[in-house]
Design brief:
By secondary structure, the protein is of the alpha/beta class. The protein has helices spanning 50-56, 104-108, 168-174, 177-188, 204-216, 230-237, 253-259, 276-284, 308-312, 331-339, 360-366, and strands at 10-17, 25-31, 38-47, 66-67, 71-79, 91-94, 132-134, 137-138, 151-155, 159-161, 196-200, 220-224, 241-243, 268-271, 292-295, 316-319, 354-356, 376-378. Bound molecules: zinc ion (2 copies). One of its GO terms (molecular function) is alcohol dehydrogenase (NAD+) activity.
Length: 379
């Protein structure tokens, strides 16, 4: 069993959110060495995911101060006792889910929510303590990750080792957004060949859902976004039809989708924006009785009004975290596709959409540009 030579506290820079709606501050923090079954990771690259913005607004709980960022790639700097399948120097992507492959949920084949390594909502490590602090004050993590930091500590069961030949930016994009969309079409919905699909919101998650639907053989893939520039992006991943709701009278999105499907609606509708009223629109846009609605995008609304009759008549409304992907069983398959260049991930990114950690607040501004899908953060 390897024990790390590095057992010192590291002082390094990290992006901290101190309160709801406050701009991030890049400050010096202290990162403790990894405890048992943990690793300390030197972050190399990170990216901005929509959920990070929600976290600056206190999602899923107002835990401050907090080191943000949950997409990224890093190199293992040191390892704690008991970590057996990783070595110092390995390249990894941190994730917010674990997979023990043994608990009731892991064995069920029905969910990717492991009971032993759960989605962590209290901003702490599994033992209830933090590994990051600033001048003696505890810093909350974001889920099991905090990637906008030069160093972070994570339980080894929440990381996936990656092949060094993978484009690191692409690996970062696969650590949440794009994979979430792809998984929702592939694993969660198991979209059938020849079926019709609608995807609401064409950010990285929505484009991933389009790619997943294309790979599954969907014959009609409708993308919906109010940003006209997303038409080209959607088409690059296999979208067959585009709806810009702003350019179409006052009809609700569900009606616009029905107009493109002979009035029937689609077999599968993926809601990727996290805007609560769109969940009901997605449900109404599916075929009566057998349509499936997948809620994929995170949002801050507590409740959502749902059309009762559509559900009563047999509609399926299902939520999905990380697209139903299991990090040990499924994510390596996506990373392999990435390595083989089967995903056209260059379409998610242009060179001028990158910042350094110290300019992290610029990332939130860049994301408002109409042609911006992903932003890289050089740590
Ligand atoms: Zn498990
Ligand atoms: Zn995310």
């Amino acid at each position: 069993m390897a024990k790390s030579s590095s057992s010192q506290v590291i002082t390094c820079k990290a992006a901290i959110c101190w309160g709801i709606g406050e701009p991030l501050k890049v400050e010096e923090i202290q990162v403790e060495p990894p405890k048992s079954y943990e690793i300390r990771v030197k972050m190399l690259l990170a990216s901005l995911c929509h959920t990070d913005i929600l976290c600056t607004r206190g999602f899923p709980a107002p835990l401050f101060p907090r080191v943000l960022g949950h997409e990224g790639v890093g190199k293992v700097e040191s390892i704690g006792e008991g970590v057996e399948d990783l070595e110092e120097g390995d390249l990894v992507i941190p994730t917010f889910l674990g997979e023990c492959q043994e608990c009731e949920n892991c064995r069920s084949g029905k969910t990717n929510l492991c009971l032993k390594y759960p989605l962590i909502l209290d901003g702490l490590m599994l033992d209830g303590t933090a590994r990051m602090s600033i001048n003696g004050q505890k810093l909350h993590h974001i889920f099991s990750c905090s990637t906008w930091s030069e160093y972070m500590v994570i339980n080894a069961n929440y990381v996936v080792k990656i092949n060094p030949s993978i484009d690191l930016a692409h690996a970062s994009f696969l650590s949440c957004g794009f994979s979430t969309g792809f998984g929702s079409a592939w694993r969660e919905a198991s979209v059938e060949k020849g079926s019709s699909v609608a995807v609401i919101g064409l950010g990285a998650v929505g484009l991933g859902a389009i790619e997943g639907a294309r790979m599954q053989g969907a014959s009609k893939i409708i993308g919906i976004d109010k940003n006209e520039k997303k038409r080209e992006k959607g088409e690059a991943f296999g979208m067959t039809d585009f709806i810009n709701p702003d350019g179409n009278s006052q009809k609700p999105i569900s009606e616009l989708i029905k107009d493109l499907t002979g009035g029937m609606g689609v077999d599968y509708c993926f809601e990727c924006t996290g805007v609560a009223p769109f969940v009901n629109e997605a449900l109404l846009a599916t075929k009566p009785g057998k349509g499936e609605t997948l809620v994929v995008g995170a949002g801050t609304h507590q409740t959502v009004p749902i059309n009762f009759l559509s559900l009563l008549c047999g509609g399926t409304l299902k939520g999905s975290i990380f697209g139903g992907l299991k990090i040990k069983s499924d994510l390596p398959i996506l990373l392999d596709k990435c390595k083989k260049k089967e995903f056209l991930l260059d379409n998610l990114f242009t060179d001028h959409h990158q910042v350094t950690l110290k300019d992290i607040n610029k990332a939130f501004e860049l994301l408002k540009q109409p042609d911006c899908i992903k932003i890289l953060i050089n740590i």
